[in-house]
Amino acid sequence: MSYKIDNAIVKKDKTGKLTLIDPDGIFFDEDAFIAIKSDDLITIQLLINSILNNDFRHWKDLGEIPENESVKNLLPRLGYSREDIALLLNGF
């Protein structure tokens, strides 16, 4: 089972004007948006898919996670290899 977060691109030009790029019209009727870096969005989707698959390992071994540590480090810290992450990415 794969979970996908609806998303679009928010582009900023040199003057600071924001343009919503939403070819599927998913957000045509929305008043507010949240901007997330694309690699963070992918990481969030991988984490959600891992939770849905009940596939997390070694949560107790993580200990305290420093606030300044990137969420991108969570999967490797949980014991996922590059190959494991690649398999999760194939779910998209």
* Main sheet characteristics: 2 strands, antiparallel
Uncertain residue ranges? none
Query: Approximately how much helix is present in the residues?
Result: 25-40%
Give the termini separation: 10 Å
User: What class, by secondary structure content?
Assistant: alpha+beta
Please count the helical segments.
3
Strand content of the residues, in percent? Answer: 5-15%
Order of helices and strands: EEHHH
Give the total of beta strands.
2
Alpha-carbon Rg, integer: 16 Å
Average pLDDT score: 79
Main sheet: which strands, in order across?
A: 1-2
General form: elongated
What's a concise summary of this model?
By secondary structure, the protein is of the alpha+beta class. Helix content is 29%, strand content 9%.
